[in-house]
């Protein structure tokens, strides 16, 4: 069956509150620790969380006449990546002026308002922003909301990872993240031509895990479905921890190859290793 609609709206409030609690528990040195997010330190990831919440509220909720900070929907993927990277970098530079306490207090307010806003949205409407990493020029709003949730969750996880706080205790949150993130798979495999009926099973173990099948259709497209096909051409098995790190650009390729078990036609695993449920 096709992947079900995933309603992440009620999950924003407890997740944002947990991130704020984590930030309030940090020592001064913790804010300067490196993270898996490239050159960003903990304070930079926290500032980015604040930025994305404020951007969503400003552009989507408030709909200002000035849209200079809104991605150009008609642009090329390369232009979009450059635009987003510039937005992110300019905010991180400005946030150097803010103390950890100010960042935390501002995010506590912005996270609450973000949750308030998300809970007002209809799942069936058209998305305000299409989910570009899924290859979509037009998306359902539930997927855009879910994309926003994955952003909050994986940046919160980067912070917890950097300071040794361990994974979030609530597996439902990661389960929702993975159910959204697997929508990248058809786009990740778009350049791989296989015969109709070829299927790949992605088996994710752990408390937040699940099983999905990516199948080549008679129309020469790839479709992702929940569940396992009867006779898959390839099976890739990984833990839920490995899965989120892979899909959110926090796992080097050499580590991915050693931590993902592949059975069957192993060549079919190559696009999976480079699949990313973020704009990169």
Structure in words:
This protein has helices spanning 12-24, 42-61, 77-95, 100-118, 141-163, 171-181, 185-188, 240-247, 253-259, 270-273; strands at 199-205, 210-216, 222-226, 234-239, 261-264. Strand 2 (210-216) and strand 3 (222-226) form a beta hairpin. The radius of gyration is 19 Å and the shape is globular. It has two domains: 9-169, Four Helix Bundle (Hemerythrin (Met), subunit A), CATH 1.20.120; 185-273, SCP2 sterol-binding domain (Nonspecific Lipid-transfer Protein, Chain A), CATH 3.30.1050.10. The protein is built from ten helices and five strands; from the N terminus they run αααααααββββααβα. The two termini are 30 Å apart. The mean pLDDT is 93. Helices cover 46% and strands 10% of the residues. With 280 residues, the protein is of the alpha+beta class. The protein has a five-stranded mixed β-sheet. The longest helix is centred in the middle third of the chain and has 23 residues, at 141-163.
- Give the domain tally: 2
Mean pLDDT across the residues is 93
CATH classification, class level of the largest domain: Mainly Alpha
Structure summary, number of beta strands: 5
Shape category: globular
CA gyration radius, whole angstroms: 19 Å
Spell out the helices and strands N to C: HHHHHHHEEEEHHEH
Class inferred from helices and paired strands: alpha+beta
Approximately what portion of the residues adopt beta-strand conformation? 5-15%
Q: Report low-confidence residues grouped into runs of 5 or more.
A: none
